[in-house]
Amino acid sequence: MKKILVPIILIAVFSTVTAWAQTERPASIEALRSEHDAQWYAHQTALWEKEVQKNPNDDEAWYYWFTFTKSKFANAAARNVDLDAMAKEMSAIANRLHKERPDSYARYIIDFNYTRMLGNRPDYLDDLVIIDKTPKLDNVQDNMLKAIKMRPDFEPMYPSYVAYLVKTGRTDLMTDILKRWYNTGNYSYTMLSYAYNCMAGMEENGILFVSGEEETFACLMVQYGKGLFQDRLIINLNLLQEPDYLEYICNLLGVEATQPPADKTNIDYMNPWRENLIFSIAHTSKRPVYFTSYYIPEIFKNFLYSEGLVTKYSTKRYDNLAVKRRNYESVYLTDYMYETFVPDTFLDKRIYTLNLNFIPCFKSLLDFYKAQGMKAEYDRLRNLMVRIVENCCRMKDVDPEDHEYIMKLKERYMNEIDR
Hints:
Structural class: mainly alpha
Shape: globular
Low-confidence stretches: 8-21, 120-138
Largest sheet: 5 strands, mixed
Number of helices: 18
């Protein structure tokens, strides 16, 4: 009996494993917030392609097939991305959608994400049937508005929704999307806290110039998702070269819109154009103007005063150290830099190093405390800075190749604190 029983058990186990393999569900977007190897991404891409084959009308399956195809080539583990191979596979998916489901939600969002990903590589547009000519790119933007109204609840597209709505100034729809996004809890707590601090120390009706997409999203989520500081205006410097965004900002502030240079890749032309536009905005709008610590415009360098995580443009000298002290002691959130019970699930290592900006931004205040013999205040601020460095250098899942860089980063900022 035992000899018969063992084969039966083995058959049962084999059948269960086989059935599981046949019904394996592909991973969703949450899985992209963790690191995986190239084989995993390739496997997920194949699984989502099968989902599309089973149900060609499944918009989400198309989206995930497209997204995991991109991640198969461009992921955290990839050192060299084969852009040509990636564009070829992604354009094949887009082409198929154009033919089989031209008026679908999936086609609208994939067209938008594809063109957004290409950025400065318009030559790849030739691989697409519909969006191969510049005039037809207008359809991509118009269709994105249709997509938002069709599926305002599709969380994986929230970043793309906001990217589109920012350019067009549709604050009505952006408020709805950002409230939905905020309610999901799927965002970087560190980024939101940092954005809160940047805006909290500003004067009312201030303008904050930012350069990165993550900074823009975080500030907008604090404003429209949380409902704070809505009198402030966030301007993304990189988007000013986009015609719709430039027109929206200039009309809002009553500034004459000067068109950017034809060659937008030439910084020798773009930087003067951008800085002259900022100068015009500052003096025409009569609103307080601030910049994040990432960007110091050459034209303003002798008129910028650090107030903490932002610098303020002013033609008159003032006691900015007093403002910086007020921001640190009474305005800024700092507890999250000591400890937080809200995990940051985002992969981008910049999020973990973001708080390092706090050290050079507040070094002058640390020196002030020391010179004034304010030991309690000095110790508190220094302990915070040390904790920031230690938290950054204890990053989870640090690639071994990045370890040396992290150690040098730690040494650099510790020296900055005590110099």
